[in-house]
């Protein structure tokens, strides 16, 4: 699939043009112009370049996220979006602090790790305890209650690579529930092998959750090489003692917000085609692939239409969601604020899987998908067999009946960088992001001009 | 050359066997046995696995390097080396401390960097100053004296990839002399783009030097993505202010040492064939490719001979040099301690370029190189056109006339990892390191059994 996507990127303007000459796919001159301008342009790349350079990391609820909102408001206005505004909401803040770890015995050495988002701190100065090893999260789940009193639990387990990121869900269970399952059994802290597919010395952060009825214990992620090292040390068969000190802190109610801009529809302006991405990032990198790329792709797609002087019949709304990483809070805030007009959202989709080209189109509609299929054909993309909820921030509104679709990007290497310090601009290929801009621009344009009511018979696609 | 080396690795035992059947290359059954046992064995890999797992990082002069010496003494005895001993010496100690940096304006954000080895600290709490940008070290050299008063100098410049690491010397000038050249002109501190070929968010450390007649100023290296980011920020044209705080410290006289073990020769035990590597590493990673691999390759080669019950006519001496990273101090200590018997060293070579397979053989002898050429032919390796000083720790004795040779390994990707936290065991391919063991075992065996006096007419190969 990666190879097919690559061919598409390098040959697309020729092959699509040839298809168009046949007149077989419903494409007209404006459609071709949108693809051509997107592919030859740098609109998406320029936006992610600006956001990651001029703001950098933008952790939800922090002053950096607030600067990112200001930056995005200015950028949306600069590219010609209308009704530019912030819809504010409040989130529980969390910030990282000191984080160190070391093997104390039998082989003294430092280990590189990072606190998971939402984790409580160790006592000041840290803790020192013996490691109890679970090769997988399932092994921990199968362990008897009790028996881990005062121990530091180490949960390993590797994530499989896949174009659609299918390994993420299974690998992520230890991140989301490791502290709860270890805490239930009496553990004092948890370290996990990072949820990721690389072998670089970057720990991967990401949000964790505590169950209401279990006392919270600290949880942090080791880089893959550090997890390998700890496994080798454990294989020697001696008791392994670790010193662990993480000092993240909850910062109370903090501001976040969704930044919105529109191309107002000429005939049915109250009907919304929503294209979105999330503006916040984790604090370790500059959030280039997660999700500055999505902000660039969606705002860049709108910019293409504006620059071509194209005004659709329905309104195209670009949303840069806040606070996605810490629990899809911008997606929920949008759904709640727009509860009364969700029925006017005719289609919604999010870009949040890096900047590699799409290799298939997923449908979250059951009626009137002809337009989406035409766009997929014009992009030389097959229709995938799975459904979609449109993306993480779209999920909450999808569960209230908003029709969705998604361009499935090639995410084979996405989890090499995801939630690490290494998520930086140099990882984005300008040609690849331009191909995504082309896809979003054409889809938004065609959906906003269609007569289709994508809503009819839309199933509950929550996943 | 990488492709040729790869073919060698996968096909070598067959093709060499076939050559041997022709009897055309002077190889005998013992030679083939050495190659076969090396290639099918894990001796080298097991040694670097043990060293990096059970000791980890081992910065020169620290307690960790002392533990590495103890570990190596035990390992040398375990594999059957004779006359195992440490030749101690004293070095000026240096240790890393806090190191943080941030852009203060116009776009506030943290930057990842690390102090260069030997650097002085900033004043406690750090300094804040404007950045003055030099695209290359040569641009700084060309700048007028004065004019940088109180500024933080940023020296960029990219290193080119090459199989033989030819880009390292030119790129390294800013690391070694950046503080001197900036200090001469009044600067208060220096940050450089890391000397490396990757685009990961790892700064590369490495030793720097101060000139005697210039007041020392602190110097640190930014990761490549951070240097890119700083360049993009500078391109915006506004004054860029940086806060920089590095707190390394000189720790006074500290112990180091060279660990030595031998296979004593049966006929001319006083004549030495020396195969060596360096035992110390930088403190950021676990020193797997630099130079745990070399310790594994050379000690593993001796282990192969011992396990086969092979005793050479001359003595094969394995040396694990201390304190290489901080100025080749083990190499100089060895030269000085052995000043009176350097004339008994008939050939010396070092492995210090990772674990990728060799692609050519370099000569530092002018007489009696027939044995070396035979070994190269048996390994299917061409003779390179350049000379060699045998490796960093061999250089000092080479300048006193000790004949040398070197297996030039493929170092195309070596500087992706060199001197970073990412120099860890997972980067070593067991088959590749086994091929290096084969090369060293056969060379040591053949040179130690030869009648050749490699010394005759040995030129001054210092480079």
UniProtKB/TrEMBL annotation, chains A, B:
Main localization, broad class: endoplasmic reticulum
Official protein name in the record: Carboxypeptidase Q
Top-level taxon: Bacteria
Region of interest: Disordered: 165-184
InterPro entries (alphabetical): CPQ, Peptidase_M28
Assembly and interaction partners: Homodimer. The monomeric form is inactive while the homodimer is active.
Keyword match Glycoprotein: yes
Record's subcellular location: Endoplasmic reticulum; Golgi apparatus; Lysosome; Secreted
Species the sequence originates in: Algimonas porphyrae
Residue span(s) of domain Peptidase M28: 258-439
